[in-house]
What we know:
Elements: H1 4-27, H2 33-48, E1 52-59, E2 75-82, E3 85-90, H3 99-103, E4 107-113, E5 120-130, E6 139-140, H4 143-155, E7 159-165, E8 168-173, E9 185-186, H5 193-201, H6 215-223
Parallel strand pairs: 5-7
Antiparallel strand pairs: 1-2, 3-4, 4-5, 6-9, 7-8
Helix pairs in contact: 1-2, 1-5
Amino acid sequence: MFTDYSLDKLEEKIRNVERHFAKRISEGTIVGEEAITERLIQMLETAINGFVLSCNSISQPFGVRGSNDTQKKVTLQTEIIKAPRFMGRSTVAKGMNSEESISGADAMIVLESGLPGIEAHKGFLFQAKRHTGNGRFRSLGTAEIKEQCQKMQRFTSSAYAVVYHADGFYFFDSSKTTDQNWHSFKSNDAIPLSKIIRLFMVCKIGDHKLNAINKTAFANFLSSAQIDQSLVISTT
């Protein structure tokens, strides 16, 4: 639907966010997992919301006036539209049966598309970890991040782990932790955030059950999974 050219432009914009964000982490001007996560979401919202994408559509009428029905006229049309709305928030971490303790996620991202004739909402979860090791990031594997990633996988396959490090940040597919031979996330296996956003835009990833970021919608999303319902958060 979207042209490769406009998606390439969006990817470049996200890469600029990545570079700026990595610089802030390296300089120590933004610290702490929660603060970093909140800032990352804000920067992505600013970069994506209002961005325009070109969209190709094909017009193929049943016939052309003055011709027989076997003659067809195919027209490729290009429209300029706003990118789907990008929204995100951190999960509630405090309290018994909190959003984070149940879902394993630190934050959620949702796209809302209002294209003519197409209304779609979908999202993904991610768990974040601040890694303070010296030198370049090579790997991270702890019992805690494995447990949290596996919690997210109970609810959706659209879930990621992100490692914040002084030389940047790294996204990983959380489903890797379900492999019994998994020991750690390695830098070579990281997925560029720009690629994740591109795949998100073209509906290659994302869970349509995760369709809003408000507390009630997230509680409904958690309730839809086959888990112990006594653990589902209250919306009151």
